[in-house]
Amino acid sequence: MSSEDDDPIIQEIDVYLAKSLADKLYLFQYPVRPAAMTYDVAHLSAKIKPKQQKVEVELAIDSMSPNYCRSKGEQIALNVDGTTTDESNTYSTKLMDKQTFSSIQATTNTSRYAAAVFRKGELHLTPLHGILQLRPSFSYLDKADSKHREREAANEGGDSSQDEAEEDVKQITVRFSRPESEQARQRRVQSYEFLQKKHAEEPWVHLHYYGLKDSRSEHERQYLFCQFTGMAENTELIKSPSEYLAMLMPPPVEEEFAKPVCPSNVLSMAQLRSLPLGDQVRTLMKNVKVMPFANLMGFLGHGTDSTAVLRCIQQVAMLVQGNWVIKSDVLYPKDSCSPHSGVPAEVLCRGRDYVMWKFTQERWVERKAVAAVVKLPPEDVKDFMEQMSVTRINRGWEFLLPHDGEFIKKHPDVAQRQHMLWMGIQAKLEKVFKLSKEDMMPKKQNPQPGSVVVSGEQLVTKARENVRENYSVLERELQQRHGAQSQDLEAVRVKQEPLSDGEEPMDTSSSVGHNNAAVNGLYSDDSSRDSVNGPCLLRAHAAPTQELRDFVSSIFRKHFVLTLSELKRLFNLHLASLPPGHSLFSGISDRLLQETVLDSKCKQILVPFPPQSSAEADEQKVFALWEMGDSFDQHRQLLLEIFMKNYRVRRNLIQGKLTQEFGDNVTKADLDRLLKECCVSYGGMWYLKGTVQS
């Protein structure tokens, strides 16, 4: 009752439905002019095609207006009608003194529109039959163009008498048309040419225009009022509350044409997530075929139970090198056959299972060896290989994804169960293909659950690291040797060639006369080099000097985020700019440099790099300025905490966290400044500086 008292009824108005003009009432709109600029000129003529709801109206142009260009009007009339005087001329006064407005339908469904008239406390509604938009028609330009072509044809007609004589003896070919099929008839009926022809066939109905203040107009306006105000004559407006509400807000009806037309094998993410979990996993695996478990969870959406997904994935896929590969019997169901050779599905499943089993044993598989065992057509064998591997020059086919040891560590029970399943499949393959024990033995040791398979790229990365270490030790030995021989000896510089595109060689130049203890002012903390690459220099256990603290503080206030390798590079450049004999040449170890960073209001950011990341140890040590002493410290600390959970994030996630923590006070300029200070963008994602692995 209290809510009703707050919203009192001010007035009740009776509503009537007038139907006298229901099939004749049109609303005209003039979209090319504002409402204040009406066409207050004489209306010369009007006509309509009722079926098409197409109207044309001719309006006079005030040729006496100071804004009218008379010479242009005469030129347009001359181009349209020529110099002849005829009743069919568009402009009888030899001057463009009128314009035509042609209509198009603003909407085809006018059932929700009506014209309303309010009189004596009553509201009378008349449904609209059509809503038309009238725009100026430029058909006179088409007529002028056709006149121009006729004149050109007449000028060239004198030279065509001989051609006409020759045309009299031209051969005539007679053709008989075939009966029109139903399909051809439907195409013809739906064609643009046929529709235009049908529209042209409807005759024009000429109308007489009456002005706004004409007595006939006043008489017609009376039909906008309902002639019978009794309740019995307005049954359309007598509805129950539920029926009236249903009329105002009809239930949504899903129309067939509203759905996007997609190929049969394409499923949108919205449609995918409407399926049961098992069907979602099955559909994804059939399309992708090979997928890590982490990627599968990302596709299924936030909040999906990983235990339920594990149960579903084991029904449609097998574990190969820590990744999930679609089962052969799911990919090739019963009673199907190969699209390439027509081989039955049962034979295809046996051959594909052998390829999958080979990849559980080895990182690389030779296609010829597989074809010799399964004895299937080359197209089918190639299809198997392309589904789960990529070709490598002089190595064979390598498994498509790196080994996912992280999944095996988290789910050892699943890995063990899959291992037992593969043992059963192995026994079946031995029997089907009649393989000996030697054939079943892998070239490399069979990986057990939890073991790590090293890929070719990882081997190359390890070799590059060894080369860099050898160069570093060689530099130090050379400088020690030359430094011991003479204090005036010129500095020795050993340049390391770039190992890959985008990898910058380190400048190892140093003044040996003043510092023969370290090449770049930095000692390595890697004591294992004593046995691998020869003797190593002793570490310097010195306290950080004020000069070192000042350098670290200034460099982080400039860069905000640095990896250890980048910090050492900048420190070496700083040393090169110092005069000989400076105190920083006494030798600064990696440990001392890191301790100085942590004492300078900085913090190490434990970025969770992916397991397969090829970043070096120094590149995975990331330090950031934690406290600068301004009001922006809290924003920066929140950003760095985000990167402690993921090594790459999207901009909208950062913006959402900042808004959640600090409210709407965070502007776009603040976010841009924060990202510019600490991050770099790559591939639509944001990374901390120095952590992007190209």
From TrEMBL:
<keyword id="KW-0240">DNA-directed RNA polymerase</keyword>
<protein>
    <submittedName>
        <fullName>DNA-directed RNA polymerase III subunit RPC5-like</fullName>
    </submittedName>
</protein>
<feature type="region of interest" description="Disordered">
    <location>
        <begin position="143"/>
        <end position="169"/>
    </location>
</feature>
<dbReference type="Pfam" id="PF19725">
    <property type="entry name" value="RPC5_C"/>
</dbReference>
<keyword id="KW-0804">Transcription</keyword>
<feature type="compositionally biased region" description="Basic and acidic residues">
    <location>
        <begin position="143"/>
        <end position="154"/>
    </location>
</feature>
<feature type="region of interest" description="Disordered">
    <location>
        <begin position="496"/>
        <end position="529"/>
    </location>
</feature>
<dbReference type="GO" id="GO:0005666">
    <property type="term" value="C:RNA polymerase III complex"/>
</dbReference>
<dbReference type="InterPro" id="IPR006886">
    <property type="entry name" value="RNA_pol_III_Rpc5"/>
</dbReference>
<dbReference type="Pfam" id="PF04801">
    <property type="entry name" value="RPC5"/>
</dbReference>
<dbReference type="GO" id="GO:0042797">
    <property type="term" value="P:tRNA transcription by RNA polymerase III"/>
</dbReference>
<feature type="domain" description="DNA-directed RNA polymerase III subunit RPC5 C-terminal">
    <location>
        <begin position="443"/>
        <end position="694"/>
    </location>
</feature>
<feature type="compositionally biased region" description="Polar residues">
    <location>
        <begin position="507"/>
        <end position="518"/>
    </location>
</feature>
<dbReference type="InterPro" id="IPR045576">
    <property type="entry name" value="RPC5_C"/>
</dbReference>
